[in-house]
Amino acid sequence: MSITVTILPRVAPNKKASSAESSSSEGLSILSTNARSSQVSVLVVDRTAKMANAASGMAVHDDCKLKFLELKAKRTYRFIVFKIEEKQKQVVVEKVGEPAQSYEDFTASLPADECRYAVYDFDFVTEENCQKSRIFFIAWCPDSSRVRSKMIYASSKDRFKRELDGIQVELQATDPTEMGLDVIRSRAC
Q1: Which of 38, 63, 160, 169 ranks highest by number of CB atoms within 10 Å?
Q2: Domain check: are 97 and 159 in the same one?
Q3: Which domain range does residue 36 map to?
Q4: In terms of domains, do 167 and 88 share one?
Q5: pLDDT of the residue at 182
Q6: Which is nearest to 174 in space by CA: 138, 145, 143, 149?
Q7: Together in a domain, 80 and 159
Q8: CATH code of the domain covering residue 174
Q9: Strand (E) or helix (H) holding 131
Q10: Do 36 and 72 fall within a single domain?
Q11: What was the pLDDT predicted at 189?
Q12: Residue 123 DSSP label
């Protein structure tokens, strides 16, 4: 039996990886096994290498992706509100909405003076009387929020959105009228 181990530590530009960093077993993932030749391929990734966005330095918590997949595939939630935790330097789930909640419940869950990302699963009926659904990504940055917060959310938005595979429509809103139900309906078709 042979084992192939690949170690990918995060190394600063002018710093060499120490042997302690290279031999860390944290983040161990088995990539593939081959029953015929008894080979196992293993990938070891340093936990600090999970930074999602080099521009803003914000990581994306795994729970964000898991909750989004549940919304998309299982329709477990109507909406998800995401928040950037500046001290932890990562995007986290702040609130989830049950499938029975309305669009008004969703808009009420967004703070009036703080930025947030949100995903909303909008159900509608077409002119041909077909039931459809669109997943909206909403970047909520009210004019009354702090400038630093606006800059962090703006610089992290594209990378975070790429982490959520399956977004169909994107909206940027600075006040409630820019993401009213009439705007959502017109963008869904």
Answers
A1: 160
A2: yes
A3: 2-50
A4: yes
A5: 95
A6: 143
A7: yes
A8: 3.40.20.10
A9: strand 131-140
A10: no
A11: 83
A12: E
Three-state SS sequence of 3-68: EEEEEECCCCCCCCCCHHHHCCCCCEEEEEEECCCCEEEEEEECHHHHCCCCCCCCEECHHHHHHH
**Helix or strand (DSSP H, E) at 89:** none
Question: What strands lie across the sheet with 39-45, from one edge to the other?
Answer: 2-8, 39-45, 28-34
What is the edge-to-edge ordering of all strands in the sheet holding 90-97?
59-60, 90-97, 79-85, 116-125, 131-140, 169-173
Residues facing 18 on adjacent strands:
none
Domain count of the fold of the chain: 2
From 33, 50, 67, give the residue that closes a domain. 50
Regarding whether 84 and 157 lie in a shared domain, the answer is yes
Q: Alpha-carbon distance 4 to 40, whole Å?
A: 6
Closest to 114 (Cα-Cα) out of 137, 156, 146: 146
What's the average pLDDT block by block, 10 residues per block, for the chain (189 residues)?
50 42 42 46 40 64 97 96 95 97 96 97 94 97 96 95 95 95 93
Residue with tokens 């009354």: 144
Hunting for tokens 């409630």 — which residue is that? 176
134 and 70 share a domain?
yes
pLDDT mean across residues, the chain: 80
Tokens at residue 173, please? 């809103």
The pLDDT value given to residue 176: 94
Give me the pLDDT at residue 52, please: 44
Residues 37 and 111 in one domain: no
Q: What confidence score (pLDDT) does residue 19 get?
A: 39
